[in-house]
Amino acid sequence: MSYLGAKPTLLLSLRFLSNLEEFKGATMSETIVKITGMTCGHCEGRVTAELSKLDGVSDVKASASDAQAVVTSAGVLDADAISRAVIAAGYRITA
Fold this sequence. Notes:
The protein is α+β, with helices and mostly antiparallel strands. It has helices at residues 41-52, 79-89; strands at residues 2-4, 10-11, 28-36, 57-63, 68-74, 92-93. Strands 1, 2, 3, 4, 5 and 6 form a 6-stranded mixed beta sheet that branches. Helix 1 packs across helix 2 (79-89).
């Protein structure tokens, strides 16, 4: 899993997922994005919608109670692109 905190801190590690049929043979990664400001299901939906637009993203699970989103993608995502998506949803990335 990779953990995306406030810039410039970015800790990366990959978790390989081999059981996703649509990405068979691809290296999958999971990125945990710490987010501030989400308070409800609508907030989770906005974050999910924006992060889902990023190239290579296959799944997003946003959680207001955990103040984070878990993004599954085919490869490592660009930290700036993740940050822009969260900001477009109306929230901020935290450390």
